[in-house]
Amino acid sequence: MKISQMQELLEARVLCCEENTDRHVYSACGCDLMSDVLAFVKDQAVLLTGLVNPQVIRTAEMMDMICVVFVRSKVPSQEMIDLAKESGIVLMVSDKRLYEACGLLYTNGLVGNKVKK
Amino acid sequence: MSEELIFHFQVDGDDFTSAGQASIQIKKNLRRLGLDPETIRRVSIAMYEGEINMVIHAGGGEADVKVCESYIEIILKDNGPGIKNIEQAMQEGFSTAPDQIRSLGFGAGMGLPNMKRYTDDMKIESELGKGTIVTMRVNI
Known about the structure:
The complex is a heterodimer.
Chain A: H1 3-9, E1 13-16, E2 28-30, H2 34-40, E3 46-49, H3 54-62, E4 67-70, H4 78-87, E5 90-93, H5 98-107
Parallel strand pairs in A: 2-3, 3-4, 4-5
Antiparallel strand pairs in A: 1-5
Chain B: E1 5-12, H1 21-32, H2 37-58, E2 60-67, E3 71-78, H3 86-89, H4 99-102, H5 111-118, E4 121-127, E5 131-139
Antiparallel strand pairs in B: 1-2, 2-3, 3-5, 4-5
Helix pairs in contact in B: 1-2, 2-5
């Protein structure tokens, strides 16, 4: 699925790196606990979260993710947007709740990988 | 790579939101050296967790990353309170982090186990009241 298609499904607003929205992603993870993202994520290129602080962007960078979707209308700070720009990470904001956002992506084909420990 | 390279960082302990800067820099440096992406990922995640730990528990510290021909060594040194029971600290879910850190998405007792998970070897030396040295190795 292209990031731009995710944007449509989630009725999201792109905050930065719009030039990268034609990239394809094959799996995603929804999580507010960055420690768990660092522990369990493997090859998921998209993070959906309701957590807003710079460590979200650093965690995404560490995991080689290319897109972060903030759910529940959470808006990241300018510092976070600048950090994401440095790494080319697309940031989006959606009004959807985490459960609904994940469900929409999943039912439209972004089924993701099984959790690997 | 015939000779080893050493990168040194001071980890500022005052501001949790800036934690991770050294790990981001290491990731960039290792990419420039052309190392395998999975190796880079393992090193940077382990160091990031360690850096976060130093900021949460020890008021910062120092990080050294040594890139050798067959392995990468990360040494994290702090002058914090030390770890009372290392075996307990290594258990997933055990945490002494304050609630404020938990609300930021960390402090769930996954840091040290993650560091072990992503490295080939990890050693912790800690003395109460003096500090902690964590040495990790990732084979190339």
